[in-house]
Amino acid sequence: MAVYFDNAATTKIDPKVVEAMMPFLEGNFGNPSAIHSLGRPVRAEIEKARKVIATSINASPSEIFFTSGGTEANNTALLGCVRDLGVKNIITSNIEHHCILHFCEFLKKQHDVNVECLKVNDLGRVDYEALNECLGKQEGKTLVCLMHANNEIGTMIDLDRVSEICKAHDALLHSDTVQTFAHCQFDVQATPVDFMVCSAHKFHGPKGIGFLYIKGDHKISPLLYGGSQERNMRAGTENILGIIGLGKATELTYENLEKDEAQISGLRQY
Questions:
Q1: Nearest to 245 by CA among 89, 45, 56, 80
Q2: What is d(CA 81, CA 104) in angstroms, rounded to the nearest whole number?
Q3: What confidence tens digit (pLDDT) does each residue in 173-186 have?
Q4: How far apart are CA 175 and CA 73, in angstroms?
Q5: Cα separations in angstroms, 157 against 6, 7, 68, 111
Q6: Starting from the edge strand earliest in sequence, which strands make up the sheet with 195-199, in order?
Q7: What is the DSSP string of the chain?
Q8: Which domains does the chain have, with CATH numbers?
Q9: pLDDT single digits (tens) 141-189
């Protein structure tokens, strides 16, 4: 009998998610950009999924943009900050995911962005005073980019505290929440963040689909150009199956969040 202990890397897709996706693999094959009777029902399902996700984090549906997953979402947010929002400095940590660290190196070389990596202690925790001091030294617009939970060791930041520090310095905040969306409760009104991301396969959804939350105040340019999908933010025919699967996985997870949290915390403590 095989025993699987790698849910931080990926999770098995929920049968109810597969069930929700199946009609769009068979009969409902219309292009959501089409205005005829085969396209409109598919568009409605995409917008239903967007609303489910927005509601789960207390955001507006217009602030949710579907992507291929966490890597694309993180890259889009960082490039948008530098290219469109005037960010000159990025403060991150030395244990971020490679899609952050490698892209920061790209931005440093290609866009002359100042990148500073905060050290972490033996438990992988960022020093909040060091973050505060580092922000105080910056000249020009700054983005703080810290993942909510580390993908290898599981250490979490205090997102409320980081948000307060950023607000005090008028800095933007991006948090990679791939490991914690659908495992923790988020409220982007109570704990303001400018950008956050998710990847469905981390919580029993399909691979190859995620979202980027962009606070409504910010207008950034697309990473992909071509069509007008995702309100001109991401060209290309939508990943219909993925989006519907993501929406269903989000719905199922947040319906059972408290029960699942208690079970997982109990296992962890044991």
A1: 45
A2: 12
A3: 999 999 999 999 99
A4: 11
A5: 22, 20, 25, 28
A6: 64-67, 210-214, 195-199, 172-175, 141-145, 87-93, 114-118
A7: ------TTT--PPPHHHHHHHGGGTTT----TT--STTTHHHHHHHHHHHHHHHHHTT--GGGEEEESSHHHHHHHHHHHHHHHS-EEEEEEETTS-HHHHHHHHHHHHHH--EEEEE-B-TTS-B-HHHHHHHHHH--SEEEEE--SB-TTT--B--HHHHHHHHHHTT-EEEE--TTTBTTB---TTTS--SEEEEEGGGGTS-SS-EEEEE-TT-----SS-SS-HHHHTS-S---HHHHHHHHHHHHHHHHSHHHHHHHHHHHHH-
A8: 15-269 (3.40.640.10)
A9: 999 999 999 999 999 999 999 999 999 999 999 999 999 999 999 999 9
Confidence category of residue 268, pLDDT binned at 50, 70, 90: confident
Radius of gyration of the chain (CA): 19
Amino acid identity of residue 250, one-letter, is T
Measured from the Cβ of residue 151, the count of other Cβ atoms closer than 10 Å reads 17
Strands 87-93 and 64-67: unpaired
CB atoms within 10 A of CB 253: 18
Average pLDDT value for residue range 226-252? 95
Q: How many CB atoms lie within 10 A of CB 102?
A: 13
Beta bridge partners, 174, equal 145, 195
Dihedral, CA atoms, 31, 32, 35, 41, nearest 10 degrees?
Answer: 110
CA pair distance 130, 119, nearest whole angstrom: 9
